[in-house]
Structures are given as structure tokens and as C-alpha cells.
Amino acid sequence: MLKFLFQHYSVLEKIFGLLKKQKESAKGRVIRHLVLVARGIAYQAKKDGIEFSEAYRRAFERLKELIGLQVELNIPILTIDILPEYAQAKEYFMPAVAELGEFLQWLNKAEFIHKNMVKVSFFGKWYRLPGDVVEIAKKVIEETKRYDSFFLNFCINYNGREEILDTCRLIAKQVQIGKLDPEMINEQIFKENTYAGYFLPPDLIIKTGLLKKMNTLLWDLPDAELCFLEKSFLHLSKDELRKIIDDFKLRKY
Questions:
Q1: Contact by Cβ (8 Å): 88, 161
Q2: What is the architecture, at CATH level 2, of domain 11-22+30-159+203-244?
Q3: What sign does the dihedral 53-208-250-160 (CA atoms) show?
Q4: How many other C-beta atoms can be found within 10 angstroms of the C-beta atom of residue 114?
Q5: Mind listing the pLDDT tens digit for each residue in 161-173?
Q6: Which H or E element spans position 140?
Q7: Checking CA distances to 172, which of 49, 57, 62, 222 falls within 20 to 30 Å?
Q8: 3-state class percentages of the chain: helix first, strand second, coil last, to nearest 5
């Protein structure tokens, strides 16, 4: 546990610094960690009669617009769940992956990222995607690894239940090699070993699409307020996202 705190001290220090600034300037509740679950893209493509590649091109163009709100609204942590693991079995998976690669190329060069020192991370089995996409993702991680003003995470080839299993495996290995006493395992230890181990739990999770089910950051889910939008992610505007965030801040419960 001490090793964990030492390794991530600078990240935690920066996050709490951002939170202090929020508290000094915000009226009502603050958002420390916002999660956006982007669904309904393939469904909308079929409904509108457009190619999956075009639908995902539009989705990532929309994402470019929306992530700007992180800095604009001073949200320390933003997590985007854009490509779930189950999509591997769907016909839209490869078109989505191709457009993801184009998006990551843009992200690596985006002035927004480097000017505002946004550190980019990936959750899930993203490293099992085609090699060219994996290499781009690695490059983005490398180029932003020293940034610590904001934290932008992407759930790619992600499965919330698999995250729980991976966490159990990590803890089991620590017990096996004698680094962790089983009697010391508690909620904090478990949290530290999740994909988002050194990030604060989400305050607000917004999910687009018809299905009102959640499979993102399951361990942290009880701490979050959930907002379900029946519209496709393709139809979520920057102004609407801003309004949802503003409404959250003004609610007193």
C-alpha cells in the first residue's frame, strides 16, 4: 500500500490540487470524475442507413468536440467508454477500430492535449487490437505520460466484469508471492488494484443508447450518480452535455 502511494503521489497530489481550485470557484457540487459511456452508434447507423465506418467517423468527430469540456469546465478526470469488448463479435467492430486508429492519430498531435497537459490512459484489453492501433495508443501514452494537469481515460475493448476478475488476479498474485496478507484485503486494497486504481470514483456517469444497463467501472459504480439518455451518442451535443453537468452541480442531494 505504501509502495502504491509513493508511485502515484504526484498524480494524487495534482488531482487534489485541482479539486481545491474547484471548491474555491464552484457553486454547488463539483465533478471530480466524469464518465461518458458512448453507445447507440451502430444502432443509429442501421436506423439511418449509413455505413458503420461513417457512423464511427462521426462518433469520433463528436468526441473531439466533447472532450474539450474537460478543460473548459475544469474536470480533473474524464473517462470515455467508447468500444466495449462485446463489440468484437459484431459486424461494426473492425470499422470502429479503423476509425479509432484515426482518432488516436489526431489525439497524439492535438494541440488541446499538449497545451493543457492532458495525460491519456487506456483501460481494458486495448493491447489486443490490431497492431497498428496498439502502436498508436502506445505512442499517445508515451507522449503524455509526464502530463499531470488533467487525466483523460479511454475504455477500449473493455469489459467491466473482466476488470473485476483482473483485479482479483492481481491481488491473488500479491498474496501468492507473500507481498500481501489475505487478512489485509479490504475495499481500499481492492480499489487500488482496479484499472482506475489511483483515480477518484466517478461522480457522474452519463450513458447514451437505448439499454439502461451499466458495465463500466463496476467497483466504483455505487459512488456515482447515473444519467441515461435514450439518444445515440451521435446526437449528444456539447451544449446538452454541458447542461447535464450544470444540472448535476446545482442539485443539492
A1: no
A2: 3-Layer(aba) Sandwich (3.40)
A3: negative
A4: 13
A5: 999 999 999 999 9
A6: helix 131-144
A7: 222
A8: 55, 15, 30
C-alpha 168/C-alpha 246 separation (Å) is 37
pLDDT tops 70 at residue 99: yes
- Residue 252 C-alpha cell reads as 443539492
Distance CA 160, CA 178 (A): 28
Domain ranges of the chain: 11-22+30-159+203-244
CB-based burial label for 240 (10 Å; 0-12, 13-18, 19+): middle
> What is the rounded distance in angstroms from the CA atom of residue 253 to the CA atom of residue 245?
15
| Coil, strand or helix at 240 | helix
Contact 154, 187 (CB under 8 A): no
End-to-end, the C-alpha distance of the chain in Å comes to: 33
83 within 8 A of 96, measured Cβ to Cβ: yes
